[in-house]
Write a structure and sequence with these properties.
456 residues; TIM Barrel; eight-stranded parallel β-barrel; two-stranded antiparallel ribbon; globular; binds erythose-4-phosphate; binds phosphoenolpyruvate; DAHP_synth_2; 3-deoxy-7-phosphoheptulonate synthase activity; manganese
Length: 456
């Protein structure tokens, strides 16, 4: 049996310091190192092929360096928690389609390239506020994402099972394969994406976006008339991102890049550290400081300016362009007060990070009928606050990070095609946090495009 923290030699990449995290406080993990299947699952992941290639990861870092310079915009979107059952062509294509649609609208608004990234192909681990969940008089371990345990409220389902990491790996591979096929194989054709957006405009609830939708349409027609190379516009880059929460999984999928001799997390192109695990002396910050991927860190309302600066020091000591993205998730009520000191401190330090807004996680409420939800108006208010703060500080609002889906779910309240609480029964599918549905996601893109048109 392996003691917690013991280094397991199963072929996983060896690199000086890479295993230092094992000696540090490690939050939000299942207690499964003694499970009879742990070693074999870890071993299998350690020798499986990487899901992404380090060269692609470097390319993304270059794209993010452009964002940090204010020359591109970043869109990160996808599920709160991916599920194994949702690894289907329909669900994946709906998500990719929605992100591409949003990206076209944002590209027009920003008049800049949009870096497209899914919370996809790896977003299987969830941090929880509480280790236990109680329903009636039964208390069981919390659901921690399908990479760890099952959602069903039974004792058996909630036992962490390391074999789930292997299933998550294979599901991520299948998802990534389809994303690559879609985005390389013609699905991303700008003209097709524009046709999908026309479908959105047919709903009278969206008439207020007519002007900007018409402008985009004319721009596409103009490009066509000028003989623009639509062949090259049939393909697009699309990157995979997830929270690097489960360090056994991330460690097992770390590989040494044969070109540079440097370690990369190969479970996705971009990984982020969550609000609950970003302790300066914790295992997550240490581990991710040692891999070469571009990294995100979530910053909630309790973040102090000096913490943001120390995170830069730890995660990006070389000040490498595109290395670090700060994803603020303050809540609509806080952003105008809490974000400015952070943005100003980072600006004054001379460090260049990408600033992204996550307008979801600070705006969670419980609906009267018990569902976890978010109001579309609060989400949009936080986005507006984000732009205002950056405008006042003379810094660049670099992107959006949203929990969304391509399906017609009812999880967040509001939007022009209004969702109210009565729609939750039957159309609420998320296993953890509420997502914007397809229409709400596009509506957000139109609203952000309007703000960007004013900024640019
Ligand atoms: O997605 C984020 C977190 O996992 C989630 O907000 C935690 O939710 P909880 O407070 O229900 O545990
Ligand atoms: C858990 C998440 O966010 P945060 O760390 O900001 O709470 C998330 O993005 O899934």
């Amino acid at each position: 049996m392996t003691a917690p923290g013991e280094i397991i030699h199963t072929g996983a990449a060896e690199y000086p310091g890479l295993d230092r995290w094992r000696e540090l406080p490690l939050k939000q993990q299942p207690d499964w190192r003694g499970h009879p299947d742990f070693q074999s699952a870890y071993g299998e992941l350690s020798t499986n092929p990487p899901l992404v290639f380090a060269g692609e990861v470097d390319k993304l870092k270059n794209r993010l360096a452009q964002v940090a310079e204010g020359k591109a915009f970043l869109l990160q979107g996808g599920d709160c928690a991916e599920t194994f059952d949702d690894v289907t062509a329909d669900k994946i294509s709906a998500k990719v389609k929605t992100i591409l649609q949003m990206a076209v609208v944002l590209t027009y608004g920003a008049a800049l390239p949009v870096v497209k990234m899914g919370r996809m192909a790896g977003q299987y681990a969830k941090p929880r506020s509480s280790d236990m969940e109680t329903r009636g008089d039964i208390t069981l371990p919390s659901f921690r994402g399908e990479i760890v345990n099952g959602f069903d409220f039974t004792e058996e389902a909630r036992i962490p099972d390391p074999k789930r990491m292997v299933r998550a790996y294979h599901n991520s591979a299948a998802t990534l394969n389809l994303i690559r096929a879609f985005t390389e194989g013609g699905f991303a054709d700008l003209r097709a994406v524009q046709q999908w957006n026309k479908g959105f405009m047919e709903n009278p609830a969206h008439a207020k976006y007519e002007q900007i939708a018409g402008e985009i349409d004319r721009a596409v027609q103009f490009m066509q008339a000028c003989g623009a190379d639509f062949e090259s516009l049939k393909r697009t880059e699309f990157y995979a991102a997830h929270e690097a929460l489960l360090l056994d999984y991330e460690r097992a999928l770390t590989r040494i890049d044969s070109r540079t001799g440097q370690p990369y997390v190969t479970s996705g192109h971009f990984v982020w550290i969550g609000e609950r695990t970003r302790d300066l002396d914790g295992a997550h910050v240490d581990y991710l400081s040692r891999v070469r991927n571009p990294l995100g860190v979530k910053l909630g309302p309790t973040t102090k300016p000096e913490t943001a600066l120390e995170l830069i020091e730890k995660l990006d000591p070389e000040r490498e362009p595109g290395r670090l993205t700060f994803i603020s998730r303050m809540g609509a009520a806080n952003i105008r007060e809490k974000l400015p000191p952070l943005v100003e401190a980072v600006r004054d330090s001379g460090a260049k990070v990408v600033w992204v807004t996550d307008p979801m996680h600070g705006n969670t409420i419980t609906a009267k009928n018990g569902y976890k939800t978010r109001r579309f108006d609060d989400v949009m208010d936080e986005v507006r606050g984000f732009f205002e703060v950056h405008q006042a500080a003379g810094t660049y609002p670099g992107g959006l990070h949203v929990e969304m889906t391509g399906d017609d779910v009812a999880e967040c309240l509001g939007g022009s095609d209004v969702i109210d609480e009565s729609a939750f029964d039957g159309r609420y599918e998320s296993l953890v946090d509420p997502r914007l549905n397809h229409k709400q996601s596009l509506e957000m893109a139109f609203l952000v495009a309007e703000s960007l048109t004013k900024v640019s």
